[in-house]
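User: Reviewer 2 asked us to show a designed sequence for the structure in our supplementary figure. I'm pasting the structure tokens here. Could you produce the per-position amino acids so we can include them in the response letter?
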């Protein structure tokens, strides 16, 4: 018999069951409400994890990966003649299964020796209440009646993330727990902060009721009262000694660590019968609000209705895009990937066990890359986000690094450290271009927005000591008015400043890091060849976009800040691009000095043809410069391998090639050489060969982020090289860069190579025995194949984008619909059909490709296109690419494409 699948998908094509996962303490799933203001949870097959609203409001103690080995959500049954059985511990003769769907979690643990089956269903409602609901069902699976005493228990924390280690005991002294007929309430007197204490308006609670509507007989509200001196949440004295609950005195309650331990009345179940209990763990501002919230879910009928609403909401969310290839498991797996960008919008980059470095919020790069897939998944919500986000761009081309919870709210950095990432300027254009292609909304480029302003000047080289909070966070002109420029101007500022911001090798400076945050120790002399090529490609694409906009909108000029003329140097004084020193001096003396601390407020009208000529001159110069200077050639085993160097370190030394008898190569340096359009077809073939030779792991099949540099640390380059090789940014199988590599290959027409890269990720993720994760794509896999930092990763956005727009080839171009499939023959089902459903032009599309001869990508041509069964005339852009005018998509349509 074949081995049991780690996850067995159910008939809905997304929910799954797993007996193997039920044995792993460190595997977890997310639960949450509908937005960032909702409750957020992590939950394991042992019901460990944590529950929180934000970094200031943790209902339970914050949990990192190793904390998952300890219980959190507990339910005990005391059977007089047999002992204690619970949800966390496995007994001698037991079986366990988890069943998971978006976004709910169900654990079934069978204690055969006791003759009972315990089931726990957990979810967070999508109706706005800040509560996690838990329904525990006790079933008698023996042939005799069983009597038991049930106790639910959740340890409450009720304070800030920081208090896990900072003043943990002192902040417990602020606790004012209370016993009520519904359960346990925790009110805190203050929000403790040595920089300024504040009145607390938070009420945490654990309430419960049985299936008949009967509440608990009493409670054990404190650690002392429930655990006792010798016990813990794993083995509380109150349960193991079958103590009776009592009403505690004030001095026994106040200032104590709190447990929401609820004792229900003793129950007898006949053979085959069951009894259920509803437990609510929540947070409100007033006690009355906790009661009102609990009232919405305090019966099996109400809870079932809430669960149905939860399932409907999340299934609708992930059904915005559905893939139907020849691999049903892959189709189901992709539905979880589609959910991940939505989760990141809610969780940010924090609040799950692996993501214990975060304090909430999202970074600059995160929000732009998440929008890539949200444009495809939730297109109606994106336009204003794009406009708001551009308010975080500084006039020096850098940007605020943290986006606040409110529209247009920005902070310099979550750790209050002044830093600037050199890649940040490249992502907004990429996202805007996708939005324009999908929507045809060229007007967004001419929409005006402010610039971000704080003390940081000249990309952190200078600081405005006169700046204060009275100035505000918006750039002013000389008259004291808030300056606004078009979004197009913002994009130009980001790219033109970087063209001149170069190091010794005339490559854009690495600054605090690029996409790889681990390359953070080369601020002085470091340079990023990888992202220089990306900026070069963007400059050429901006030029192309301007020409299309001019044609679509029938305009010949654009309006920009007068100071920007200094960076459009071919329109004024031509700079010698071959001189790195001349470029740096020009940036600082001609541009930075003219826009800091304020701008003139004056604008000029420029001919679009002049601007595009300047942009192309710069983009083409970058390409030719890298081709001429950055090729790596290495002869091994009688064969020559060639690729592009990706970086220079803080000693201005090239980091790739044969160095100290060690081959050093990065995947990043190759990805953007291909994606930007710089690498030729011949060079791409050389890159593929080199990547497969040096970066492909023969055992696991995936691509590593870099070869082993053979160093314990690399203080002239970045912290990444202090990590163990094969972890995080030092040679792990980093999903984000792998997916971007696949995307680049598809963009350049190398479908088979791109497919192999994506399949390597899927195989590693799907190998649950090794990856030890639920369906979805993690940030990376380590050298043992274990998936790490699951769910909250930008790789999910890129995978959705690549799968829809390049593998299935359903995408926009200036607002029109493009069909350009690059499906390989394995991706068609037995009938030669592959299909995708998605949104376009505000309508629902189902595109079905028929490949009766099962030809491979590159071998088939588009023979016929039918819309709702009617043949239409299409514009053939190539043999396997057609364009359909947007005006045709006036209703939901089914498109059938015949490939021959």
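Assistant: Here is a per-position design you can include in the supplement:
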């Amino acid at each position: 018999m074949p081995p049991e699948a780690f996850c067995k998908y159910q008939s809905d094509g997304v929910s799954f069951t797993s007996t193997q996962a039920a044995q792993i303490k460190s595997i977890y799933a997310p639960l949450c409400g509908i937005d960032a203001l909702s409750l957020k949870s992590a939950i394991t097959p042992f019901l460990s994890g944590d529950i929180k609203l934000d970094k200031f409001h943790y209902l339970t103690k914050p949990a990192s990966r190793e904390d998952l080995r300890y219980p959190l959500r507990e339910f005990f049954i005391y059977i007089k003649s047999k002992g204690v059985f619970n949800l966390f511990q496995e007994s001698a003769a037991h079986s366990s299964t988890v069943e998971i769907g978006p976004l709910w979690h169900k654990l079934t643990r069978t204690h055969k020796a006791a003759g009972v089956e315990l089931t726990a269903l957990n979810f967070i409602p999508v109706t706005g209440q800040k509560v996690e609901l838990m329904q525990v069902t006790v079933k008698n699976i023996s042939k005799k009646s069983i009597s038991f005493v049930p106790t639910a228990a959740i340890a409450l924390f009720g304070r800030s993330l920081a208090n896990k280690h900072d003043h943990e005991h002192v902040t417990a002294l602020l606790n004012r727990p209370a016993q009520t007929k519904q359960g346990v309430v925790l009110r805190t007197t203050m929000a403790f902060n040595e920089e300024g204490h504040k009145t607390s308006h938070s009420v945490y609670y654990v309430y419960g009721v049985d299936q008949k509507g009967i509440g608990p007989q009493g409670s054990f509200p404190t650690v002392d009262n429930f655990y006792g001196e010798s016990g813990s949440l794993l083995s509380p004295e109150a349960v193991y000694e079958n103590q009776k609950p009592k009403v505690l005195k004030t001095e026994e309650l106040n200032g104590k660590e709190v447990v929401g331990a609820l004792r229900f009345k003793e129950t007898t179940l006949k053979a085959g019968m069951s009894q259920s209990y509803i437990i609510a763990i929540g947070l409100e501002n007033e006690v009355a609000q906790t009661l009102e919230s609990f009232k919405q879910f305090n019966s099996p009928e109400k809870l079932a209705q809430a669960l149905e609403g939860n399932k409907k909401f999340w299934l609708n969310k992930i059904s915005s895009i559905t893939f139907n290839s020849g691999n049903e498991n892959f189709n189901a797996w992709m539905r979880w990937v589609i959910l991940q960008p939505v989760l990141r919008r809610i969780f940010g980059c924090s609040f799950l066990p692996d993501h214990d470095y975060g304090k909430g919020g999202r970074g600059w790069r995160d929000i732009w890359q998440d929008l890539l897939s949200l444009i495809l998944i939730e297109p109606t919500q994106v336009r204003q986000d794009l406009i708001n986000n551009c308010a975080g761009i500084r006039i020096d081309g850098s940007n605020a690094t943290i986006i606040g919870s409110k529209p247009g709210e920005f902070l310099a950095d979550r750790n209050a450290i002044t830093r600037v990432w050199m890649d940040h300027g490249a992502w907004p254009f990429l996202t805007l271009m996708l939005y324009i292609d999908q929507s045809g909304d060229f007007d967004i480029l001419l929409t005006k927005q402010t610039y971000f302003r704080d003390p940081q000047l000249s990309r952190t080289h200078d600081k405005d000591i006169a700046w204060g909070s009275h100035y505000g966070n918006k750039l002013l002109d000389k008259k004291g008015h808030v300056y606004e420029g078009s979004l197009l101007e913002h994009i130009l500022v980001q790219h033109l400043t970087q063209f001149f911001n170069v190091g010794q090798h005339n490559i854009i400076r690495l600054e605090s890091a690029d996409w790889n945050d681990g390359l953070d120790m080369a601020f002085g002399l470091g340079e990023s060849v990888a992202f220089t090529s990306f900026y070069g490609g963007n400059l050429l694409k901006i030029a192309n976009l301007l020409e299309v906009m001019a044609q679509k909108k029938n305009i010949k000029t654009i309006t920009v800040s007068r100071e920007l003329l200094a960076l459009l140097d071919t329109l004024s004084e031509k700079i010698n691009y071959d001189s790195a020193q001349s470029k740096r001096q020009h940036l600082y003396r001609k541009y930075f000095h003219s826009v800091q601390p304020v701008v003139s407020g004056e604008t000029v009208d420029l001919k679009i043809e002049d601007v595009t000529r300047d942009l192309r001159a710069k983009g083409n110069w970058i390409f030719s410069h890298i081709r001429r200077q950055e090729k790596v050639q290495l002869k091994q085993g009688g064969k020559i391998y060639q690729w592009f160097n990706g970086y220079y370190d803080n000693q201005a030394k090239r980091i790739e090639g044969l160095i100290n008898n060690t081959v050093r190569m990065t995947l990043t340096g190759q990805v953007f050489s291909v994606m930007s359009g710089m690498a030729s077809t011949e060079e791409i073939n050389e890159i593929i060969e080199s990547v497969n030779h040096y970066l492909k792991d023969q055992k696991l099949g995936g691509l590593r982020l870099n070869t082993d540099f053979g160093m314990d640390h690399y203080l002239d380059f970045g912290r990444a090289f202090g990590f163990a090789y094969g972890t995080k940014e030092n040679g792990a199988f980093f999903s984000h860069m792998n997916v971007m590599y696949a995307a680049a290959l598809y963009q350049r027409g190398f479908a088979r190579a791109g497919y192999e890269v994506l399949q390597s990720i899927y195989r590693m993720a799907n190998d649950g025995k090794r990856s030890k994760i639920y369906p979805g794509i993690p940030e990376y896999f380590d050298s043992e194949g274990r998936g790490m930092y699951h769910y909250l990763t930008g790789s999910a956005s890129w995978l959705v984008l690549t799968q829809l727009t390049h593998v299935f080839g359903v995408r926009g171009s200036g607002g029109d619909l493009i069909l350009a499939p690059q499906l390989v023959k394995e991706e068609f089902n037995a009938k030669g059909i592959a299909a995708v459903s998605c949104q376009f032009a505000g309508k629902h599309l189902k595109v079905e490709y028929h490949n009766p001869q099962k030809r491979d990508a590159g071998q088939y041509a588009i023979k016929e296109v039918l819309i709702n069964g009617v043949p239409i005339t299409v514009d053939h852009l190539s043999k396997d690419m057609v364009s359909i005018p947007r005006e045709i998509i006036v209703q939901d349509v089914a498109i059938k494409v015949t490939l021959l």
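For the response letter, you might also mention the following. The chain is about 30% helix and 25% strand. The longest helix spans residues 529-553.
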